[in-house]
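Box 4.2: Ligand-aware structure prediction
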Amino acid sequence: MRAIGFDTGAPPTYPRAVSRAPTPPPIRYEERAPAPPDGPVDLLALIEGDGPLELDVGFGRGRSFLERARARVGRIVGIELKAKLAYEVEQRRAREGLVNARAFRADARELLERAGPDGCVTRVFVHFPDPWWKKRHAKRMVVTDAFLDTLARLIGVGGELYVATDVEERAAEYEARLAAHGAFDVRRIDENPFARSNREVRADEDGLPVHRLLARRR
Ligand SMILES: C[S@@+](CC[C@H](N)C(=O)[O-])C[C@H]1O[C@@H](n2cnc3c(N)ncnc32)[C@H](O)[C@@H]1O
């Protein structure tokens, strides 16, 4: 016999259990960013294989670095100061199976000063460096005479240094530095024959001029 007044015949309903996935702990980029070895660094030992070696200094979000790695023209080492960017780009490189590339978190000036062997690098990319304008930030500048000395030591004869910027004053300053340095023949070029960086793509989209320098190691 059915209970009067209570049994409606509808299946019973229960309060819906709310299942929320626990929030993952924040990634500690400082700890997890890929660090280069301490002490003297053999750049040729960082990546397996024996193709020509390129460097992407301050790769930011990594577009140029990853594209160059995908083109498999040789090997490429990326160096980025910001831990989060270095971590994310290195993760992506590994996910894509780009075994000819490695991204590291480091100050390129400090890392390359203790790197060798001399003449082991074929090409260096420095896309849109030095977004600093205040005098107190001068110590952060990457393309300095000291950095050019380091690159002149690492780049083999006939190797290249590519520098791009959207600031004409900076391009003129880099050009003058390179011309005065003595180890490079420098010229302006209209197109980027290698791989565009995130900043370069954005500059193109915004219709901003990009100033490009190609310096050849004497
Ligand atoms: C204006 S952003 C350009 C990023 C990227 N190359 C592009 O063109 O889209 C400059 C980048 O250089 C990095 N950087 C600045 N000083 C550096 C240094 N000493 N060593 C390595 N990376 C550096 C910054 O963290 C930043 O990601």
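In the box above, the bound molecule is S-adenosylmethionine. The mean pLDDT is 93.
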